[in-house]
User: Which sequence fits this backbone?
């Protein structure tokens, strides 16, 4: 039987159903929104967890959609066979009954305020044009029609655009005789971007005016749903908005509607004949706890299943990691003191850290304390809640890295940061010590660098191997080779000059679990060099001058001996 295609990159509900793609039915979210009755709902979830698709589904259900001539479009077939269709008339009666204003703010990720504002203006103008059938009616005054046309033509003043959603709501209510639903996707993109680009205040002022007029003083508002990655302080954007219901990864409500539950993943794997891959999929893409519900990363699951459907032996990949710059991790690493570096090492080793959680923060607060940076990592999906406790009036979370994919992001970011540091270092004293056989200076300088960096792999030998190669590969006049065949085995590192008239350096690495064993580790390494005759191949090449180093590591200590 031909399987339904997987919806990679499909963000619009109608496209999902029309294909038809494999769809994980989240339509029961409609019932919950109606039952809970909040006027303005803010949902914050990590990127690629289905927020845009959820808003598109809500719009398709609620909107009394019309074509350019004002003729109503029947969207009910898009919900045939869905869960919401089985909930009864008290919910189905809301289908296709409301005028809808729908915006995405993601296009405002621009280098300056003027270009970002121009993109927002374009998005707002497009929404006005979508409703231009209103200009053909007598429900709107001639003055308001002129204002409407200016907004649609991108010719209005910034003050008009800052209150444009309220104005459009009034026009729609006048025509449809029903209050309006407003759906805003990725509301925090312009705020995050403007903070890092240096024009936060200008953007925050515009977004604040846009939201206040549309969501606070709008008598034509029936319901609003807003999505983003981060919750921004009420005092920053949602000033005085008392009817705002905030739902983050901390809340039990709506937890199952963003991302995939364990049952949903089992159904996907069963449908595509991949049930035996569940353990691998869990290790890589599970691990999120939204409220009390265990959640998988949906973007990565879909990509993984597609890859495995084509080739069952394909390796899992960090799909989510490759959809963003992951700059928040780099910010943490680059600003880390010794204590934070130790916490990052603990996390990568699979341990937990305990941090206070504050949801009401702004972008200006990021660097006021390291705790704020940990907060950002948690709410954006780079850390997961293991447990929580209340101490006084503060909630503390025990946090861990969710899965293998996110651990890859930390490791990759650390390697990039380390390479950047190496490129900026003056390593001449280290190179000189290596070439002169100065084991004391060699030991001291490597130990000093270890204390400054962040390790992973639980201090395993391959970590130290990569670390030392990274330091030595820039030694002028020398080629640095790693794990090449020499003699009867493979020395860990070989450095040699292009000409055999120069020198060859052989290094063997060992790692010990007890500091008292570090000298013995060096001796074992030197003994291995001798027993395996590592210099034989180099001797045959024509080299006659050698230095042999036995190097032993204990956590952030390095000892070097020569023989």
Assistant:
């Amino acid at each position: 039987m031909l399987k339904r295609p997987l919806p990679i990159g499909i963000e619009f509900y109608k496209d999902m159903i029309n294909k038809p793609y494999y769809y994980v039915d989240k339509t029961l979210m409609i019932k919950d929104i109606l039952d809970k009755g909040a006027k303005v709902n803010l949902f914050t979830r990590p990127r690629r967890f289905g927020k845009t698709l959820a808003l598109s589904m809500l719009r398709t259900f609620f909107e009394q959609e019309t074509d350019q001539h004002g003729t109503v479009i029947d969207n009910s077939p898009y919900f045939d066979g869905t869960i919401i269709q089985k909930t009864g008339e008290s919910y189905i009666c809301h289908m296709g009954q409301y005028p809808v204003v729908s915006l995405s703010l993601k296009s405002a990720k621009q280098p300056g305020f003027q270009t970002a504002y121009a993109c927002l203006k374009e998005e707002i103008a497009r929404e006005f044009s979508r409703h231009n059938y209103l200009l053909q009616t007598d429900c709107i005054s001639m003055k308001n029609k002129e204002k409407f046309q200016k907004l649609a033509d991108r010719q209005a003043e910034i003050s008009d655009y800052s209150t444009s959603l309220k104005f459009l709501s009034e026009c729609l209510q006048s025509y449809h005789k029903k209050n309006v639903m407003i759906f805003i996707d990725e509301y925090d993109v312009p705020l995050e971007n403007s903070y890092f680009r240096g024009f936060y205040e200008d953007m925050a002022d515009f977004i604040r005016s846009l939201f206040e007029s549309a969501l606070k003083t709008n008598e034509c508002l029936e319901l609003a749903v807003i999505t983003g990655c981060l919750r921004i302080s009420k005092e920053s954007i949602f000033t005085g908005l008392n009817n705002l219901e905030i739902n983050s990864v901390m809340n039990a409500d709506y937890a199952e509607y963003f991302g995939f539950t364990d049952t949903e993943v089992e159904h996907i794997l069963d449908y595509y004949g991949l049930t035996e891959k569940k353990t691998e999929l869990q290790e890589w893409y599970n691990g999120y706890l939204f409220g009390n519900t265990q959640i998988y990363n949906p973007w990565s699951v879909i990509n993984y299943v597609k890859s495995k459907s084509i080739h069952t032996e394909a390796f899992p990949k960090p799909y989510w990691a490759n959809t963003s710059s992951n700059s928040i991790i780099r910010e943490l690493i680059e600003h880390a003191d010794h204590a934070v570096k130790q916490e990052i090492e603990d996390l990568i080793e699979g341990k937990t850290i305990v941090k206070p959680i504050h949801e009401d923060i702004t972008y200006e607060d990021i660097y006021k304390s390291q705790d704020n940076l940990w907060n950002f990592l948690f709410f954006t999906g780079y850390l997961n809640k293991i447990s929580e406790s209340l101490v006084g009036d503060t909630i503390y979370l025990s946090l861990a890295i969710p899965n293998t994919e996110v651990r890859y992001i930390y490791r990759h970011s650390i390697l990039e940061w380390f390479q950047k540091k190496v490129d900026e270092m003056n390593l001449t004293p280290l190179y000189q010590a290596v070439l002169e056989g100065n084991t004391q200076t060699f030991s001291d300088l490597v130990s000093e660098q270890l204390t400054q960096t962040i390790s992973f792999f639980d201090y395993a030998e391959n970590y130290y191997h990569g670390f030392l190669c990274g330091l030595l590969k820039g030694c002028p006049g020398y080629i640095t080779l790693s794990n090449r065949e020499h003699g009867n085995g493979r020395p860990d590192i070989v450095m040699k000059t292009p000409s055999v008239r120069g020198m060859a350096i052989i290094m063997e690495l060992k790692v010990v679990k007890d500091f008292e064993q570090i000298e013995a580790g060096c001796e074992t390494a030197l003994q291995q060099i001798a027993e395996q005759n590592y210099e034989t191949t180099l001797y045959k090449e024509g080299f006659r001058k050698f230095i042999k180093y036995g190097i032993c590591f204990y956590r952030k200590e390095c000892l070097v001996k020569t023989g």
Q: What stands out?
A: The chain has a mean pLDDT of 92.
